[in-house]
Design brief:
The protein has about 180 residues and is mainly beta. Helix content is about 10%, strand content about 65%. The radius of gyration is 18 Å and the shape is elongated.
Length: about 180
């Protein structure tokens, strides 16, 4: 499963690197962007990220991106143990933007590899407090919609699924953000 996911990430990155201009947009896009997003983890918790993106072509169809995020999650075992997880992670991936709809909307899909650290705190009926830390490696799938407000400013809505080698279940994150092009 992990090998096929990593192979898919590598394939998407190779496609992004070799992509050709396909659809011309009425709004001329800039090559670089910086974005800030925040979202709610549907398993409980939040995610805040800061990233940068580089487009390979002038029509805004393929890009590579990198971001760092701070992710929290909490859970409750049936044994009266409360878990609070904090993760600091880096992400590197590729996005494919579907050609513009009326030159303002840009839906996209993306795949990425993620790595980082986490700290788990536990409180409970028989545990006053315990902590553990570990390193993580995993993958992220993204579906989003970007709306251009101006030539260099956009807002986005995003849905992400994040899976790491430490987690039993993937995290589902829904959020939004703002993107600045330069």
């Amino acid at each position: 499963m992990k090998r096929s996911f990593l192979l898919g990430c590598l394939l998407l990155i190779c496609l992004a690197i070799n992509a050709q201009d396909t659809a011309k947009s009425q709004v001329e896009m800039l090559e670089h962007s910086v974005f800030v997003t925040a979202g709610a983890n549907l398993n409980g918790g939040i995610e805040v990220s800061l990233g940068s993106e580089y487009f390979f072509n002038t029509n805004h169809t393929t890009s590579i991106y990198g971001l760092i995020d701070y992710h929290t999650a909490h859970g409750d075992d049936f044994e009266r143990v409360f878990h609070f997880t904090k993760k600091a992670m880096a992400e590197i991936g590729a996005r494919y933007y579907i050609p513009a709809v009326k030159s303002r909307f840009y839906p996209y899909i993306g795949l990425a590899a993620t790595f980082g650290m986490q700290m788990i705190e536990k409180w409970g009926y028989d545990i006053s407090r315990s902590e553990s830390a570990g390193y993580l490696f995993g993958g992220v799938g993204t579906i989003g919609l970007e709306y251009m407000l101006a030539r260099n400013v956009a807002v986005e809505a995003v849905a992400r699924i994040k899976y790491t080698d430490f987690d039993d279940d993937p995290y589902f994150i829904i959020g939004g953000g703002v993107k600045f092009y330069f």
